[in-house]
Specification:
CATH superfamily of the largest domain: Glycogen Phosphorylase B
Largest sheet: 7 strands, parallel
Strand content: 15-25%
CATH topology of the largest domain: Rossmann fold
Number of strands: 13
Structural class: alpha/beta
Helix content: 25-40%
Order of helices and strands: EHEEHEHEHEEHEHEHEHEHEHEHHH
Number of helices: 13
Number of domains: 2
Length: about 400
């Protein structure tokens, strides 16, 4: 079997996810070749199986807001055509859309259907609630309906919302594990900086990753005001220019907790992420009710077995926490419920070793790859897979 993985991101969660998928499929005994499709600006070593042929995923730091929007529209239209041109020359393959260009799907999907008998297509639904995407809900639903009409497989993590565009009769939906990110050694320089910066008399919770409103910083700060022996570490960069970190900092000052909040407003390497997790007493994954996805942060934290407080919403994250008993759950967008969880965290908490072991065994990238391949075999037993 041959596999092609399409990723239009050059950094962040989807980029890291693609790299792990690459290794998992390469290691599978039924897979003879894996090709990775990336943007031209992706930080990757030159390899025959890595093709940086997509448009860069950002136009440069000096670009105006209008230039960034135009660049986004150009690449979401052009990148699928670049992949299509490649697929017309490739032998039969499983084509996995780790990212997909949702807003232009009605434009490019009909062209892909002309070669659908030659290849198999799968979409990874990192965020299964896709009708919150621009420009509006109706357009987003139409785009998702077009996209899923092409897919043989829809791959989701634990939770799939009951959306009309997930009712395509040709698509089989498969629950796959997210996969774990191998923890590197903590960055020594950042670890030393945190040791000097963090107060030894406080237990710090940490909110990791891109800063966006969905992570409930306001509630975390309000809760912090009720626990004078706790601190908060915010580590990540704003997800876009509209994120108002100054507003969060002003709120912290008004609440009288600013001196107990440490900000690391920048992109963190995996080693720096490990240093931050190591310095914290627990990790806050307390997302808003609108969050329906799995958390890549969870699968960064899990190998380190760090205690977790998460929101108990309709999400893959909450289902995973509950199924494997690997953290505390609190009703989302509820200050009192968050404070109850933090009160338990004051005394220290953490899952049993057996709970962690069960989750780590489940959330293995090789398990992900094997689940997908077995689903394909079951879906089309007459296909000559050995020839792929």
């Amino acid at each position: 079997m041959r596999v092609i993985i399409y990723t239009s991101s050059s950094f962040g969660g989807c980029f890291d996810y693609a790299g792990q998928l690459h290794q998992a499929y390469l290691a599978h005994p039924m897979v003879e070749q894996v090709k990775m499709i990336y943007p031209m600006n992706a930080p990757l070593p030159p390899r025959a199986d890595v093709l940086p042929i997509l448009m860069p995923d950002h136009p440069g730091q000096a670009a105006t807001a209008r230039a960034r929007r135009l660049h986004f529209l150009r690449r979401t239209a052009r990148n699928p055509l670049t992949l299509l041109k490649l697929l017309q020359k490739e032998p039969p393959s499983l084509v996995i859309f780790n990212d997909f260009e949702q807003i232009t799907a009605p434009f490019w999907v009909p062209m892909y259907k002309a070669i659908a008998g030659r290849h198999r297509f799968a979409a990874i639904l990192h965020d299964p609630d896709r009708d919150n995407y621009p420009p509006n809900r109706q357009v987003s639903e139409r785009c998702m309906r077009a996209l899923m009409s092409l897919m043989d497989l829809g791959l989701y993590h634990q939770h799939l919302p009951a959306k009309p565009y997930y009712q395509s009769p040709r698509t089989r939906y498969i629950d796959v594990p997210h996969g774990l990110y191998p923890p590197p050694a903590p960055d020594a320089a950042l670890a030393a900086h945190l040791k000097q910066t963090l107060r030894p008399d406080l237990r710090y919770g940490v909110i990791l990753g891109n800063i966006r409103a969905e992570k409930n910083y306001e509630l975390a700060l309000q809760a912090l005001a009720q626990f004078p022996d706790m601190g908060l570490l915010v580590a990540g960069k704003p997800s876009h220019q509209g994120v108002d970190t100054d507003g969060y900092k002003a709120l912290a000052t008004n609440l009288g907790v600013a001196e107990r909040v440490v900000w690391l407003e920048r992109f963190l390497t995996t080693a720096e992420m490990a240093a931050v997790i190591d310095a914290a007493a627990y990790v806050l994954l307390y997302y808003a009710k609108t969050f329906t996805s799995q958390s890549g942060i969870l699968n960064t934290v899990a190998p380190l077995r760090k205690p977790i407080i998460a929101s108990d919403g309709e999400s893959s994250l909450a289902q995973t926490i509950r199924r494997f008993n690997i953290g505390l759950l609190a009703r989302p967008d509820d200050l009192a419920e968050l404070c109850k969880a933090l009160a338990r965290a004051q005394d220290g908490f953490g899952p049993d070793a057996a709970d962690w072991a069960a989750y780590l065994a489940y959330a293995d990238w090789h398990n992900h790859a094997d689940t997908v391949i077995q689903a394909l075999l079951a879906q089309d037993a007459k296909a000559t897979w050995a020839g792929w």
